[in-house]
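Support request from a user on the community tier.

User writes: "When I paste my structure tokens into the form, the page sometimes reloads and wipes my input. The last time it worked, I copied everything first. Here is what I submitted, just in case something in the input itself triggers the reload:"
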């Protein structure tokens, strides 16, 4: 997992993966005039997803993992927490959806609140990169201390780019 500000992008980040330069160029070219919500396949197997949704309580989401793609997530509007863990101790997790090859995703729920994870507050102008094995739980409201019956008052609509970068360059 890697998190930083878009303003800090330098040629060093491109050394992490040969397709990162193309992915970050697409992000840079689309920040001013946000494209419509949807999914596009770009050159070299990169997938650009433009999404908008309301954040939700952390207990309503499961950790997800991808095996064939690296996620680059960029928030363009709103704020959200993303929980992250390496899931070193599988005994602490329950599988809620087996791996789907077609969708490149699997879901697990932590058994208890004591599960070891980090929480990232993603804001506009920031990005986070998740490699396979970086289990993450996006879409979490920053208003978790608000009573459940009042959360709709504090709903947080976000707008986000998710770049899916193939791990395997033969993809």
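"...and here is what came back when it finally went through:"
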């Amino acid at each position: 997992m890697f998190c930083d500000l878009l303003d800090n992008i330098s040629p060093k980040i491109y050394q992490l993966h040969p397709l990162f330069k193309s992915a970050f160029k697409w992000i840079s070219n689309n920040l001013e005039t946000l494209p419509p919500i949807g999914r596009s396949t770009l050159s070299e197997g990169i997938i650009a997803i433009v999404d908008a949704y309301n954040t939700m309580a952390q207990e309503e989401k499961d950790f997800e993992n991808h095996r064939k793609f690296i996620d680059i997530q960029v928030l363009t509007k709103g704020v959200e927490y993303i929980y992250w863990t390496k899931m070193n101790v599988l005994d602490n997790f329950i599988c809620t959806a087996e791996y789907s090859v077609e969708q490149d995703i699997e879901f697990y729920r932590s058994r208890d609140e004591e599960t070891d994870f980090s929480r990232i507050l993603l804001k506009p102008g920031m990005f986070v990169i998740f490699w396979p094995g970086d289990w993450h739980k996006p879409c979490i409201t920053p208003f978790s201390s608000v009573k459940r019956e009042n959360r709709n008052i504090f709903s947080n609509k976000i707008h986000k780019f998710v770049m899916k970068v193939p791990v395997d360059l033969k993809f």
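Agent notes: The reload is a front-end session timeout and is unrelated to the input. The chain has one domain: 2-166. The chain has a mean pLDDT of 89. Escalated to web team.
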